[in-house]
Amino acid sequence: MASINRQSNVNSQSFKSSPGAGKRMLVTGGGGFIGSHIAAALASRGDEVVVLDNFSTGNRGNLDGIDARLIEGDIRDLACVEDAVQGVDTVFHQAALCSVARSVEDPISTHEVNTSGTLNVFDACRKAGVRRVVFASSSSVYGDSATLPKHEMMPTAPLSPYAISKLACEYYGEMYSRIYGMETVALRYFNVFGPRQDPNSEYSAVIPLFIKAIFDQAPIRIFGDGLQTRDFTYVANVVQANLAAAVSPSAPGKAFNVACGDCWSLLTLIDKLQTVSQRTTEIEFCQRRVGDIKDSQASIAMARELLGYAPLVNFDEGLRETVNWFTQADGSAFMKRPPAFQEKAGGVLS
Predict the structure, then answer these.
(1) Which strands sit side by side in the sheet containing 48-53, from one edge to the other?
(2) What is the band of 290 on the pLDDT scale with cuts at 50, 70, 90?
(3) What is residue 331's predicted lDDT score, i.e. its pLDDT?
(4) Long-range CB contact pairs, 337-344, < 8 A, 24+
(5) C or N: which end of the chain has fewer Cβ atoms within 10 Å?
(6) SS3 for 113?
(7) Is pLDDT at 8 greater than 50 in this prediction?
């Protein structure tokens, strides 16, 4: 999903030969978790899908069975992006380095990929006459405000380089809509989870890491007291929001929360995962990490009103679907891969 390795040459290939019947759509980071779900939805309805990814964190297997043309390249390579957007109606921009912890350790790379890379996407789209760019922002832009639920009119207060990079993209997007007339829509994701989310990175999200830990009988590491809350959002809801944001006449120039409008603590999450999987494991409590926020819950009233968005899948159903996927063939392959970091599962919260 992320763009990190600079490549001077661009490799292009097709996963299936038949073109789509609809408009041409580009998904940056389309080999990643969320991007591949968006690409699959677009292809299934008959759009011609182009995927741009350098696979630094994405997975080619995520594109299996999806009718898409692949451009293997980096969003920091402006020429590559300009090639990818040719003839495109809508760009779904998902490529990013998606981790608060990583951004604290390496703020330069986070800025280069998330902010400068997104600016490349915006400007290439402007020059190519792309109709609309729907791009991934983050709930982290709200910071650690005690106000719940978070709503789009409240002040932003980013606490990490990652959050700042996403907020900068929102400002650039609004500016491109206002000055250049290019339609942009920001979607502030709240802790997305679901099938294809890789548990094998130091910067993995909590749900796939916790699932892997439970099945491996490894300790789950919680940074804090476990009472911190998040509005966990199943990936099908995020896909729905992206498709709606691509066509809503009221969306350009705005930012929208994408969530379920509820919240659950990490301890509740672990209890639910152990119930669904019918397995248990130990919990280890550690010191709270720099940049992590305490509580997060979204108001989705604006998305309901202007996008027609309503969650398709609730939290419990999403957890069941996700655990089931990880026990099937595709998910099991993720589970069996050795972790690229440490044995105890901690996980990233945005």
Answers:
(1) 11-14, 68-72, 48-53, 24-28, 90-93, 132-138, 183-189, 254-258
(2) confident
(3) 59
(4) 337/200, 338/200, 339/199, 339/200, 339/201, 339/212, 340/200, 340/201, 340/202, 341/201, 341/202, 342/202, 343/218, 343/219, 344/213, 344/218, 344/219, 344/220, 344/221, 344/284
(5) C
(6) helix
(7) no
